[in-house]
Amino acid sequence: xxxxxxxxxxxxxxxxxxxxxxxxxxxxxxxxxxxxxxxxxxxxxxxxxxxxxxxxxxxxxxxxxxxxxxxxxxxxxxxxxxxxxxxxxxxxxxxxxxxxxxxxxxxxxxxxxxxxxxxxxxxxxxxxxxxxxxxxxxxxxxxxxxxxxxxxxxxxxxxxxxxxxxxxxxxxxxxxxxxxxxxxxxxxxxxxxxxxxxxxxxxxxxxxxxxxxxxxxxxxxxxxxxxxxxxxxxxxxxxxxxxxxxxxxxxxxxxxxxxxxxxxxxxxxxxxxxxxxxxxxxxxxxxxxxxxxxxxxxxxxxxxxxxxxxxxxxxxxxxxxxxxxxxxxxxxxxxxxxxxxxxxxxxxxxxxxxxxxxxxxxxxxxxxxxxxxxxxx
Length: 377
Ligand code: SF4
Fold this sequence. Notes:
Layout: E1 2-8, E2 10-11, E3 23-24, H1 27-44, E4 52-60, H2 68-81, E5 83-94, H3 101-110, E6 114-120, H4 124-129, H5 136-149, E7 153-160, H6 167-179, E8 184-189, H7 197-203, H8 212-228, E9 232-235, E10 238-240, H9 247-254, E11 259-262, E12 267-270, E13 276-279, H10 284-292, E14 299-303, H11 306-317, E15 324-325, H12 326-333, H13 337-340, H14 342-348, E16 352-355, E17 358-361, H15 363-367, H16 369-373
Parallel strand pairs: 1-4, 1-11, 2-3, 4-5, 5-6, 6-7, 7-8
Antiparallel strand pairs: 8-10, 9-10, 12-13, 13-14, 15-17, 16-17
Helix pairs in contact: 1-2, 2-3, 3-5, 6-8
The protein binds iron/sulfur cluster (SF4).
Iron/sulfur cluster (SF4) is lined by residues 11, 14-15, 18, 20, 22, 60-62, 95, 118.
């Protein structure tokens, strides 16, 4: 089985905390881009080798800026040139305020069956701080419209540890988030990335960002409130009601099957051998030029050997509640965690637990994830 990812690197405006590759949307560019995505789909169809496509994901940027006709054209190409599973998960990221009910109905008719809604905050003041173009009412209107046209698989994004956010503010935001009653939530602590307007404001003393201790407390509050409401904390930043984990992202973390990325800035993974990661560079103009000339925009990013593949599998697997198993490590890599990484296990102590042959971090382990995982890399 394989997965497909389309990268849509356009946004109506740049959010001041964001360091993703995205460009201001220009109708002319957007007009030509979907055609090149279709050509790239056609170019790679032979590489799929008849494998079933289990998930498709439109990410960005702001994929909801793509006209629904373009989404329909791309999904039709997938149906014609690949073997799309009848129950494939087909997700599109939506920014509230970029879609109306007619657009959502057209996306649903095109075959999109899951929406990931970039809500980010449930407090109007914080949404303004984050430079978002929507308010909380718009989030509610987008969710209501999505449900009305038939979407029931909905995910909301939340950014926490925001400037000036008190523990009580966070609890109120989580209560507002829970009131929307969706099946999947992605929650990220704000990180101030170098080179962003937020970094400049922080340096100038104009942005009061959370210290490490408050960010840790916020992580625990998010975990406790969402788990108490029936969500499973199935990956460091992701929560789902039983049976609603994102299938597409789980495949990234599993690292056993290939995914094909299309568009400027998209990454691909070839699971054969120890694995190979490829990328289309973050360069829209270069991507369009290469595609129009009939070329292949992909470049090799990393060809893995056994040690690299094992390190990456541990890095990805231990981010998840399902962790890594003794059986998998033995069969795939010929190692046992206890004998191959004794020093790392000592460092992790009780934070890395083994239950029924499954290794996984507890909440404390996730809090220290970057520090602890480095012991295995
Ligand atoms: S909409 Fe998303 S991708 Fe675009 S600038 Fe804002 S955070 Fe970045």
